[in-house]
Amino acid sequence: MDTDRRLLIVEDDDAFGMALSRSFERRGYKVKRAAGLPEMQALLLEHRPQFAVVDLKLAAGASGLSCVQLLHAHDSLMVIVVLTGYASIATAVEAIKLGARHYLAKPANTDDIEEAFARAQGDAAVGLTARQTSIKTLEWEHIHEAIAAADFNISEAARRLGMHRRTLARKLEKQHVK
């Protein structure tokens, strides 16, 4: 791999962002961090990263998908990995469509992310499971689709789902989603 590996981390959780930065710096990456889209845009004026790690859900309900789209437009060869505690099929598909190479559910560590950076192609040998999708899984994916469609605005997502905001908040709490 190139000795001048430049990485941009877009993560609003300061403790996690710092830990990730230190871990990648120990592996020889030159790391810059941004907490959201405006800060990321400012960094792109002076920093031309080859790799990016983007959190799906940023502060104030902002979507990391906007960051993925801008990063891909900035440099279509940049290797982008999306991290999320909100793993769902809908957001994974959108992240890939917008230019991410991989989509990893948290907790993901530096090894997982670096492996995702290195894997340029999909793996057709991945085994298919015969397990049927449960009603709870379908409900959870439907909730995630609504949340993503509402740009992570919980009140708007609840309205679209036809449920009270507190009900949706309780469902998210049960799944330990921050």
Descriptive key words:
5 strands, globular, 178 residues, five-stranded parallel β-sheet, alpha/beta
Written overview of the protein:
- The chain is an alpha/beta fold.
- The protein is built from 8 helices and 5 strands, in the order βαβαβαβαβαααα.
- It has helices spanning 14-26, 37-44, 64-74, 89-97, 110-118, 135-149, 154-161, 165-174; strands at 5-10, 29-34, 51-55, 79-84, 102-105.
- A 5-stranded parallel beta sheet has the order 2-1-3-4-5, with helices on both faces.
- The termini are far apart.
- 31% of the residues are buried.
Q: What Rg do the Cα atoms give? A: 17 Å
What is the percent of helical residues?
40-55%
Segments where pLDDT lies below 50 for 5+ residues? none
End-to-end CA span: 35 Å
Mean pLDDT level: 85
Our estimate of the beta-strand percent is 15-25%
Task: Based on Cα principal axes, name the global outline.
Answer: globular
Strand arrangement across the biggest beta sheet:
2-1-3-4-5
Pairing-aware structural class of the strands and helices? alpha/beta
Please provide the ordered H/E string of secondary-structure elements.
EHEHEHEHEHHHH
For the sheet with most strands, the description reads: 5 strands, parallel
Instruction: Give the beta-strand count.
Output: 5
Number of helical elements: 8
